[in-house]
Design brief:
- By secondary structure, the chain is an all-alpha fold.
- Helices cover 75% and strands 0% of the residues.
- It contains 6 helices and no strands.
- Helix 1 packs antiparallel against helix 2 and helix 3 runs antiparallel to helix 6.
Length: 250
């Protein structure tokens, strides 16, 4: 790809990320925010200290939520578009649509699902404020491991394909990825700071909504960017105007 094509795909990736962010914002507002409100109510009912609210809850759940989700969508859309430029034609004989959808699925798995299974998202009132630095470090370490191991598994599968065939090479690469992630889960310390009296249903709903937001974001991005990339890289040929006779050639 030349620089112009990469730049155009980068812009389309950011636009697709913005559009996918709007979809994720709708899910976050209607599915995630009620759980956050319930968690805050639980925290207020069990706390003896009343802190002054610097930013109102209504502003957090509207403008603050929109800003965070949309900026996240644009940023990761741009990064994913650059990754698409590298992956296209190198991960198999896939077209732009299939490559974009495959890339977004792998990104969802490596960037979110892998660290989520070890360190799942928690609502307000869950977690010790004194350990937030440790928990953040562990989460991003797990995210980094997920991305690096996914790249390593892809390289392994490509190198084994000429010898074992595409099917067996893919199975072996996926198995190696799963084993490596399992070892990381086993050796990294666990974090369990959920209060004993915290409602299990509320915790489950919050974590499920967090996963749904990411799934909508990355799934929407894969479909939208795949369509935009397809039109950029494989434009449809121009057709003759309707009703216009094309003179015969001799």
């Amino acid at each position: 790809m030349n620089s112009t094509t990469v730049r155009n795909l980068l812009v389309r990736g950011m636009l697709a990320g913005l559009a996918a962010g709007v979809l994720a914002l709708v899910v976050a507002y209607f599915l995630g925010e009620p759980s956050v409100d319930n968690a805050i109510s639980f925290e207020d009912a069990h706390s003896h200290e009343h802190e002054m609210e610097v930013v109102s809850r209504s502003l957090q759940s509207t403008a603050g939520l929109a800003t965070g989700v949309l900026v996240y969508g644009v940023a990761f859309g741009g990064i994913a578009a650059l990754a698409f430029c590298v992956a296209l034609g190198r991960v198999g004989r896939f077209g732009p649509r299939a490559t974009a959808l495959l890339l977004s699925g792998c990104a969802l798995l490596a960037v979110y699902v892998v660290p989520f299974l070890k360190y799942p998202a928690n609502p307000p009132s869950v977690g010790d404020p004194d350990t937030i630095g440790k928990r953040t470090t562990l989460y991003f370490l797990m995210m980094l491991l997920g991305v690096l191991l996914a790249v390593a598994a892809t390289i392994l599968g490509k190198r084994l394909a000429p010898t074992l065939g595409t099917w067996y090479a893919t199975v072996l690469a996926v198995a190696a990825f799963a084993v490596a992630i399992g070892l990381a889960y086993a050796f990294l310390p666990a974090v369990n700071e959920v209060p004993k009296d915290f409602p299990a249903t509320l915790l489950w709903r919050f974590r499920l909504s967090a996963l749904a937001i990411q799934a909508v974001l990355w799934g929407g991005f894969g479909l939208l960017f795949g369509e935009l990339a397809e039109r950029q890289l494989n434009p449809k040929p121009a057709t003759a105007e309707s009703g216009r006779r094309v003179p015969a050639t001799h």
